[in-house]
Records
---
Amino acid sequence: MQTRIHGTVMPALEVLLQPGESVFAEAGELSWMTASIGLTTHTQFGGGGGFLGVIKRMAGGGTLFMTEYQAQGYPGEIAFATKVPGHIVPVELHTGREEYFIHRHGFLCGTPGVQIGLGFQQSLGAGIFGGAGFLLQKLTGQGTAWLELSGELVVRDLQPGETLRVHPGHVGAFQGSVSFQITRVPGIRNLIFGGDGLFLAALTGPGRIWLQTLPLSNLAHALSEYMPGEGRPREVAGGVVGGIVGSVLDGMRDR
């Protein structure tokens, strides 16, 4: 398998597959492919693991169905492009030794051994009370995954005990060794008039984190005044149930 990333502001990932090799992605991610690529769509790709596994994946922002792309008989090429300005980041997963947490729509594609689930890390309250920005996808298994992060990237390597407080929308991804907790914005006046929400993500090392400069919520807010009519209904972002409902509705809409 060979890969290359084209472009800068709106990049695309091209994957050259040898016969029998495959990658999988969420429904609707395909950009282009050669004639030798075969498609198989199923709910169990990405570590679906039955009904509960599918529900966890959807709560984390994934789609109900996943599609596997495999080169059949001859080498083939498959491509996935970003949906907003940003970057494509490859990460390596090793069973029992390496895992990653990424924002709800950060998974672009991966090799067959990659598993996608719902990750609260050490704080269940982060997912229930923190809103959509705190509902994370958890990547485990064995293989390579490619992440789609929006805007420019700031990569920080946190030392043991070092903490960075981040607005939830700017959390792109972080290694599993990083502790993820929620913390309230300090000060009553800041809570009421600051406009930064009620919660921040407290990321504590050791480990690497990827911060994204263009949260999708910020982009949507900036564009909303230019959209005709009333626009799309707001996504329910109050917790696990809201995340599941929002994922189902997103999967039913044209992408």
---
Amino acid sequence: MEKIIVPKEEKIAKKRFIRKIKKSERNKIHDSLVKEILNKPKELKNFMKDFLNLVIEEKDIENYNREFRTKLKLRTRIMDLLYKVKEDSSYILLEHQSTIDYKMAKRMGDYCSLVIENDEEYKNKRKNAKAPIIYPVVLSTSKRPWDAPTTIVQNENNKYKFPPLTYPKYNVVDINNYSIDFLVERRTGIGLFMSFERIKNIEDFKYIIEKIRKLGGANEYEIETTLLVVERLEEVMPWITKVLKKEELEQLKKRIKKEIMEGGKTMVLSNFESTLATIIEENVEKGRQEGMKKGVEKGRVQIIKAMLNLKVADEIIIATTGIDKKELEKIKLTKN
């Protein structure tokens, strides 16, 4: 069968496409985690206080329908999180972004319009109708600082100098503006998750563990988030796949969940952190030893090839390097 040669450009394009798909899947996982954490009124209360300096009572907020049909019924718009503040018809609209969306202002404007259109009190009033207050927020966990406009920017160079209008302006909570220290010290599920998002290597991870230990161990918010994160460990911390094989990762997940559930919410330190750190360190050391071993072996092969080029007798090579005859024959086949 004739071998098909794929052009280099096509291979590169294919790799880029696969990377894009994987990134998209990871972003969906992160989105679902953020929604699951902030879907709890107690977590939303903590989030609004810690990152937006707004104090809201947990008893005053409730989850609201996030699925709205447009007037023409051409499509359904689903928001990430929508909360209604009881008794005063105001809303908190929260969108999570793993990447920067430069049309976010338009999206948030559309969402705000849909919330207003579907607000029962506003729909039933005709004269002097007042729209409900909507507080739109974007939580960005993008690697790059958020630099998209927070309101619709209009072109002011019009013939009759019409004054530009102010469209709904959204608020931004950008993960890049907060240190790991600040995030861990919030002692919340979303704070812990955001600190995980800041991890770049094992040193960062160890730092978070030590920080939690000094603060007295994981609390109920952090343990709930930990259990969610464990389910999707390789997506939340992609660097972990470099130190753990697939089978080891699955065993780790089972072990952590079992220990957390048995430890209960009174545990001094979440076993997630201590167990994971220990296993990672073991695997890093194992990888280091294997790397050194491979390096030594590679050096020995290079010496043997040099001896073969100098026409050194097989018996001398075997006696000097300790290689067996079969391995020597294989090296002879590849020395050129």
---
Amino acid sequence: MKRLYNILAVGIVAVLVLAACTGGGGEAKPATLLDAIKQRGYILVSTDPNYEPQSFLNTDGQRPADTKCPADALTSAEMQGFDVEVAVEVGKGLGVETCFATPDWDLITAGNWADKWDVSIGSMTITTARQKVLDFSVPYYYAPAVIAVRADAGITSLEDLNGQALCVGSATTYEQWLSGDFEGLGLPESSIYAQPPKDVKIVPLPTDQECAQAIAAGRQDFVGYVTSMTVVNANIAAGFPVVQLGSPVYSEELAAAFDKSSSLPTDTLREEVNKIFTAMHSDGRLSQLSIKWLGEDLTQAPK
């Protein structure tokens, strides 16, 4: 009888261990974020839906009926742009569907995402401040930051901006540069080409694209904005009444970001994304996407 009891006890323990490993269902409990992504069949990428040409809504896109994306996420058919296509390539490399979350930028850069999305592929600059809460992939492209001003403002030099008001996206490197927070900016000294204007008034909006849109709508309380040269080029091409002021003021390394506070380890996911980006650099896919969406190849590190 004692022998039978021992056999039953061992059997019960084995069942409990198996249930713990599978979470009570038929699938093994994921040990890493990469495992979870592959198990569910999609990766949830955070990006900005108002950052043309990097990422923006595709008004003609139709949500596929067979999508695995959550109801509150956007599919790749509903988004378009450089970052969007890069994210889709990451999904293909992992063998899963790419879905998009669109939280505010300051929530993305702050870390502590509470597992609401898996990765940011949204033109995020690597900075020392962000590295405290986020891990980064290898860069997938490099963008010069510039100042755009209203075409009728009569401003022709950085010195003309002393004491003026400029708009920036909140919690961006553009805001840090304009405020003179070079320590927070965390860029190599060789990547900073100019000092910000003196006594400038900073007008923050949720995204720097909204600065451009505000000027186009007739807003007059700032004379210009700081953003990526790719955005300014797109604004000018779209007929916005702005011009680029001089040369770039600094350059940025843009990479995918991963939350250090994720409940599941992100190391293997970051390694896979690094492999995908490295392959895309090598076979020219990143260059092709950059030329398609940004008008030039910005995937090579500045020399």
---
Amino acid sequence: MAKIKLGKTKDSRTRRKPKTEDAEIRILQKLLNEKEQPSFKKYLLQKGYSLQTIKSFERVVNKYLKWLKKENVEDVSASYNDIVHYIQSLRNTVKQRTIQSETNAIKHYYNYLKELDLVKENPTLNIAVKGVKRRILYNTLNKQELEKLYKDYRQSEASPFGGNAQRAKGALAKKRNEIIVSLLIYQGLNSTELGRLTIQDLKLREGKIVINGTRRSNERTLKLEAHQILDFMEYTLQTRRTILEQTNKQTDLLFTSFGSSTRFNNIISKLLPQLEKLNKKVKSVHQIRTSVITHWLKLYNLREVQYMAGHRYVSSTEAYLINDLEDLQEEIEKYHPIG
């Protein structure tokens, strides 16, 4: 079994043992490699969950299995109604948010059973706990919408207004912005990261880009798409050089505006309205980043997405799972809230 790369977890700051982050990573990897590891725990390890989260899931599932035993119901034959009955039994003892958390743990357990082909459907899928304020991150764009946004922007024309000099500036700005949009769509960068990029961060021979860490994020190296490499070559050799010559600026920053300021927000404030014209759903850079991370979670495990997103703690990545609900808009009418 291939090793999983493991990053920081929120609980690594507060637990006494293990004392260091590296120690927890070694423990997680050791547990993953143990042949006698209980299957559900190994399933959660492969999904990239932290030790603290796994402990919590196991505690909840064991409690649920004990309840099933009292009711003479087997876990693999439990129905939607059985799950609802169990949740209703919790009402007088715990808060709604706790019920939501326990339902989530049981949902993972049935996803695990489904992966083993022990159940055909997850009986928890159509259960929503009423009365809990859920943190809906954003109305996300799916993969097709993200790629269409990038292609539509590339195919759009620069502003035709103004004199020749003004139109030439507009064409240069659009070339620069095409690179920015590609980094939003394919690497999921945020405004701060885009504004801090320097020419040295590009590793075009390797087809990669380095995103330096900050107080709130980790450094990572991300792969560039093949078409991005060619675009970056043209941008660095022609477009960026021309912009610097016309503005008399001397900077290592990858992106700069035509004004006297070096603030990246000036570029974004003009770019976002252009993207919104192409897709009315677009609201902010953070929304686009959320959409990208949500899509990544369908392809990679939590720890891989944590690295790609630059999150310091896996709990930050877990927060995006709420958007990773397939066909949410179509399924919402089928939900049967528990009130």
